[in-house]
Amino acid sequence: MPRPAKQANAKTRRPRAREAGHHAAEPALQFGSAWDYAPAPETLPVPLKKRYPLYIGGGFVPAASGKTFASINPATGRAHARIADGGRADVDAAVAAARKALDGPWGKMPPAERGKYLFRIARMIQERSRELAVLETMDGGKPIKESRDIDLPLVAAHFFYYAGWADKLEYAFPGRRPGPVGVCGQVIPWNFPLLMAAWKLAPALACGNTVVLKPAETTSVTALHLAEIFADAGLPDGVVNIVTGAGATGAALVGHPGVDKIAFTGSTEVGKKIAAATAGTGKRLTLELGGKAANILFDDAPLDQAVEGIVNGIYFNQGHVCCAGSRLFVQESVYDKVLRKLADRVATLRVGDPLDKNTDIGAINSGEQLGRIRELVDSGVAEGAELHQSRCRLPREGYWFKPSFFTGVTASHRIAREEIFGPVLSVLTFRTPEEAVERANNTAYGLSAGVWTDKGSKIFKMAKALKAGVIWANTYNKFDPASPFGGYKESGFGREGGMHGLAPYLR
Ligand code: NAP
Ligand code: MG
Predict the structure, then answer these.
(1) 315 and 361 in contact (C-beta within 8 Å)?
(2) Global pTM?
(3) Are 325 and 470 within one domain?
(4) Ligand 1 centre and the CA of 188: distance in Å?
(5) DSSP strand E in 408-500: where?
(6) How far apart are CA 424 and CA 373, in angstroms?
(7) Span 380-409, mean pLDDT?
(8) Which residues pair with 69 in a beta bridge?
(9) Which domain range does residue 436 map to?
């Protein structure tokens, strides 16, 4: 039930978290104090550069305008590098270089040779994975244990996986003669900078395309270290071009007449603009957009394991995850128990220096994103939901948000409908499987979902009824290059990963 008295409050002050619940039907939530660990920072230095130029036609070049912008370390809020601000002329040059490579050496290369380049790139990523993981963490704020143990191994795995497909495309599509689509424009977000680059580049190259990639403004650094790997691997000039810049640079790439295909990962809002910009142009398009996934917990599930999965589902990568399990549906009979376990677990999450190997939750990617999270959390309090937060202390500098969850959430609250893209969970309840399905599917998105139960038949029943591209059972946020990923409804269309991920890059 909305509580109007709180609405007025929320306008004048930051919502204060409850450390103990006061909802009549809820148990008192006690956040205990976390264990203390000695600091365990990843050793520096890493080869972070002062300036990062564009990568066009196999060379590192400044933007034609000479303009640069700052890349910020979100854990300090301070600029640590300057990035070339690519404009229309740079996009022109990159598309021309990509076309030349397609008509030249890359287009003429036997597929097995193409595959060798991808295998070589995969191995070089493995060799330099520590350096890339540290840079990813410094530039984007994610904990080093995630960039080191999840992002980088998956980046290499994607190149290995698609390397293997390069000379087997006719087996993937029997009776057909698959050929590349042409020059691909790829625009990626900031939450998994290298991984999103790998998801886009590896299948495109395996299928014989050439690429112009536009990384996100706040996380361009590692894409340019990846460009060094391409150069060192001897990848022919112009096969991959990287043009950094803001949204306008992405829009210039999307609108460029020399581009044959656009692949975009990012917000639904920008995805809609791109769909409009490419409509009627003959350009191929795939969109990987936002999500508001349901994580459904039945009373017969192993509760401790499920709580781990819930925590991973929403707090992994600070909740900057399109498939995050951001709506938790708990069966009413175990609601009190689950809430108590969740509160206990949230209290142990370590928030702080992303370069510390013990850190569970790093920095919010940018000041702008922190503002968006706060605005939505404020709306949750104003609409009458109850906010619970960890007691952890946040660093003074940089961008941070405490791991949080809301109880007393109704389906009409903004925090139940909109993507918060931060470490904030909305907890709802259900009584029957039918009710769970109905409530879970009551969303504009359809990217992912999770089901927790001891009963196999229930898993199959739920998986069939849930309208989401990926459904995890008794686990969450598991990724594999052989497994396709993608959404329904406002979560976009097209699949990345697996054999399905080849189709968008083939004619
Ligand atoms: P975003 O604002 O849509 O930005 C994504 C990318 O598009 C960035 O490189 C951005 O540049 C660029 N861009 C902005 N405006 C553009 C325009 N008019 N034309 C072409 N490109 C443009 O999203 P974000 O805030 O970076 O990322 C968060 C969103 O991405 C979330 O909604 C999340 O769910 C979604 N996401 C989806 C997936 C998936 O696989 N489905 C994966 C990750 C993230 P700037 O960086 O300069 O803004
Ligand atoms: Mg940054």
Answers:
(1) yes
(2) 0.92
(3) yes
(4) 6
(5) 424-430, 448-452, 470-473, 492-493
(6) 8
(7) 97
(8) 83
(9) 294-476
